């Protein structure tokens, strides 16, 4: 498992070894020992797993969880192809306002770790793109928030030739600047404390 630090503090890209043969292939997109070595702590406490399927052009996000309670996640693309994006929306973070992206597909099975409090978005580059998630918390609608994925101030990497397909929730989401003005963004230091508690200390 290869690990790369992304431009957002605490966010990581994981690239596992893939073992193809005449039958197909075998891969372990998430590996506990590699995760612990890279992130620290004792474990990744899985509370829920999610599975989404999207057609080409679907853009989901930017989504985040109110902190507290906060949530960390690990995401990979099981089928299809996507650009997975992490956005630092944690007020007080050394990388606040920055983003990074990982190209995910069913050839390399790269995964991305999203620390507590950051935003998540992705762009489906092919039909029937399946994104798989493991989460440290359960879904609670009242805790789930959205920011404008097409916010020009962020300039997220939507490829040319992609006509974004957005949900109604994502179409009306506010910008990062508006969220900061309203005081609804996660606090970086509180996010780090919650993450430490979730992972069993560092």
UniProtKB/TrEMBL annotation:
Q: Location of site Participates in a stacking interaction with the thymidine ring of dTDP-4-oxo-6-deoxyglucose?
A: 139
Active-site annotation: 63 (proton acceptor), 133 (proton donor)
Q: Name one GO cellular component term.
A: cytosol
Q: Output the Gene Ontology terms for molecular function.
A: dTDP-4-dehydrorhamnose 3,5-epimerase activity
Q: Which domain of life is it from?
A: Bacteria
Signal peptide location in the record?
none
Listed under GO biological process in this entry are:
polysaccharide biosynthetic process
Tell me which InterPro entries the record gives: RmlC-like, RmlC-like_jellyroll, RmlC_Cupin_sf
Q: Which Gene3D superfamilies match?
A: Jelly Rolls (2.60.120.10)
Q: Please give the family membership noted in the entry.
A: Belongs to the dTDP-4-dehydrorhamnose 3,5-epimerase family.
Any idea what this protein is called? dTDP-4-keto-6-deoxy-D-glucose epimerase
